[in-house]
Batch of 3 targets.
Target 1
Amino acid sequence: MAARLEALGGTSDLLPEEASRWQAVEQKARQVLHRYGFQEIRTPIMETAEVFLQSLGVATEIVQKQMYLFNDRGDRRVALRPEGTASAVRAFLEHGMDKTSSLTKWYYVGPMFRAERPQAGRRRQFHQVGVEVFGSASPHQDAEVMAMLMHLLKSLGIRGAMLMVNNLGCRNDRPKMLEYLKTYFLGHHMDLCPDCKQRLEVNPLRILDCKIERCRSIAKGSMQWSKWLCKDCADHYDKALASLRTVGVECHPDPHLVRGLDYYTKTAFEVVYPGLGAQNAIGAGGRYDDLVERMGGQPTPAVGFAIGLERVMMALEAEQVAIPPAQPPAVYVAALGEQARGKALELLQHLRAAGIAAVGEFEAHSLRRQMENANRQGCPIVLMIGDDELAKGTVTLRDMATRSQAEATWEGCVDEVLRRLRAAA
Ligand code: HAM
């Protein structure tokens, strides 16, 4: 017997009912993003591994432990994308966009892959809606991106989300900050967890993000690291937060917030939804002013974020937001007899050509079973064709709500359906 085949751990199917909820959320997200002038890009889900190795940081968990890497048939090192920013920058450069001076505002929707230990809200294939703005160094741009993130979540129905922000400084500040943190944490070396002992070697900033209580309490004593921020970075951050306040968006400065990717500079942020347990970040992002240049382009300031759709769906459930179900087909065509089934297909195609969503089956089911199927699918109108109707060149039209029936001619029935649907709208 063949082995039972199942989806890989940490990946899952979305069956139609759930997929239609996802469609509604994605559609809403697109509406908001278009309102802010973002345009969609679609990049491949696999890239040469270099795209991520050059950008995310060699010491990050993603690069160290979580990338799906393989050699393709041409022996090229390939990665399934673990996130969208690096791919967007690769596309930005490949199409010479860094040589134009215009502001570029892109968004993407799609699957990302990280080999993490699966748990609630943490999947190996998960889905993001992400945005990237290239070409603006203004703190108002940081504010607009954060305001849009909160606007997006609110219009999806998520009200309990909190925006946490921090200032990670620029590349000139970083060595001084790291030096300070290294000295501080070396003094507590014995008490750090094994992961943080390693982080101390490669990037002590990341210790601030450790979830282990002992490391967190040690990290609390290190908070003066922000005094190493230069005036320009401090001013930029203050202006971004002031600008955010003027548009009525509340944010919470969090000096522990450091992010799991190395490309961030200046403003970094995360949106947490407190009810979600350990994986409570529903979105995150920040400014990454050096990345385009580091990946081989002209210096181009940039800022963006991504939300995780699985976690957004969990937050919507926690807030008991009702997502309207997909529209059922308007018409079910029920046919009795082989000849009538042939005619049913003709009629279905006429209805669809007129813009009407219509379904029917071509099995030899009883009329009763076909009516049950129509009912189950929520079709408000059933058109019936049997021997009688075939002989007369008519169809019987049944209104499922009132259970009233009427006769229509073969030629006139599509118009009659349209008339009834318009009247009901
Ligand atoms: P990130 O923080 O790695 O940032 O991911 C963004 C969001 O994706 C997270 O807040 C979370 O909601 C979701 N997410 C991440 N990993 C998983 C997972 N294993 N399972 C389920 N959801 C997950 C980025 O990816 C950056 N590229 C964001 C960005 C865009 N920064 C600037 N532009």
Target 2
Amino acid sequence: MTSGSEKVKILGIETSCDETAAAVVENGNRILSTIISSQVDLHARFGGVVPEIASRQHLLLINDLIDQALDEANLKFGDLQAIAVSHGPGLVGALLIGVATAKALAYALKLPLIAVNHLQAHLYANYLSGAPALYPAVILVVSGGHTELLLVKNPDDAISLGSTRDDAAGEVFDKVARVMALGYPGGPLIDQLAASGNPAAIDFPRARLDNDSRYDFSFSGLKTAVINHLYHARRRGEEPDKADLAASFQEALVEVLVEKTVSAAHHYQAKMVLLAGGVAANSRLRSALKDRLNRQLPATILHYPPLALCTDNAAMIAAAAYPHYLKGNFAALDLNAHPGLGSGLSS
Ligand code: KG4
Ligand code: ZN
């Protein structure tokens, strides 16, 4: 464990989905190296992630990526203080490659092993990129498998205000892109295409839900509406303008995310709003949230990670491991992967 002046270097390993990644972070806030190998090209022709291909690719790459992360940081294994790995949520076979690698390294190097919740790590991407420790904070976690609004009253006390009842936000981006034959992953492609479209061209439904569920989300109606719109147009022999369709869909989805986040920030008098997860990379979500907060709650600070730290990476894993290191919260060598792990962010 650390004395006040010791520099703690943690190797982070991330293999929960289709990015293989390794990074070294010092004291939870200084990135010494971060290496990411995306498998997007391998999965693109299948229109989504193929779990077996993801696991095999992680297995092929992980050792080299760890060597690269050490090289780039100018370090040797002996300079590390701990090995951290994302153990869930994610694809079980994919997670297992990272978990097995981390366990082998921890055992061989006699270093502590730290199990990191992937969703908590997305939140740490904010602190890694300079977010201040301001509370209460409202956090919108939006990734490929998760959509949740959290209230953090202080670092040890967070509650879940609501989550999605059906699809996650990123999942809807990916599914809509698939029916529009844009490719995979859909989020960045729709984001790009939407930039040249008219967001008011098609009035897609916004599910606001009743008062009791005002911080819950539901995106299946929006997804169905986009699919129906395309289906009916094609039956008439028409092909809708793709940019308008992308912009109108994105606007409907983003509007609900922004409305609920700002309403929670207002209700709980949040000093800060954070975005976390892959969908936090969405340019419209960032700009709409910024505009709305500026207008309605100008004193509330908005922070989101830079693009490279929004989507899956290992720097966020090593950063999230640091508080565990300080508390001596280490995993045993029988650590397993937990594909269905919740965010664990709320009590
Ligand atoms: O957090 P992440 O990298 O992986 C998971 O933990 O799920 O999130 C991936 C998701 C995908 O659904 C992807 O389409 C979405 O994030 N995404 C975006 C953008 N960039 C990535 N969604 C909307 N706009 C983007 N620019
Ligand atoms: Zn993720």
Target 3
Amino acid sequence: MSAEKKKQIAAEAALDYIQINDVVGVGTGSTANYFIDALASMRGKIDGAVASSEASAQRLQQHGIQVLDLNSVGSLPIYVDGADEATQHKHLIKGGGGALTREKIVAAVSEKFVCVADDSKLVDVLGAFPLPIEVIPMARSYVARQLVKRGGAPELREEFITDNGNLILDIHNLEILNPIEMEQAINNIAGVVTVGIFALRPADVLILGKDDGPEIS
Ligand code: 5RP
């Protein structure tokens, strides 16, 4: 079975977590897109969605789902999003699509974070996927030097500007043995907006699309 089909299986299984009148937090990326397409079947039953990117907002609106400003909703019962890597502890690397800052904000606000992914995303140790970091443009070189000191090999994401007007550094060669410590340490570097480690606020539910259906943990 293709990775795309597995993403779709995981995304559609997340519909079981949506309740009538929910405002739904929605992530970014190809798996999140499958979720948006599935959510369209509940269009009349939910109160709207908060999007983690302009791209997802546009897709939601194309399906006739109302997109709300996060500031206009008190709390979010649920957030559904993909990941680039996930561990059994539900620590994640996110930001392959560059939406990590808004994703981290929506995850922080949400009562339940359901992560949906194909089963190739499950890893023992985070870091084989280059770690995305959103940085303020003037701090690009400084942040990169700090990551080199930690053993990383930073690469500027070419011709990419985030929805917030910033840059992305993708850090290769990191073995993230203590995701919580590394998330805190990188977030403390001046000029870092967000690091793509989601460990301080991990997922609550991980749905992996597999050959024989969704596996939920
Ligand atoms: C976007 C993300 C995505 O969730 C992550 O990149 C996974 O994407 P996909 O579902 O396309 O594999 O963090 O910033």
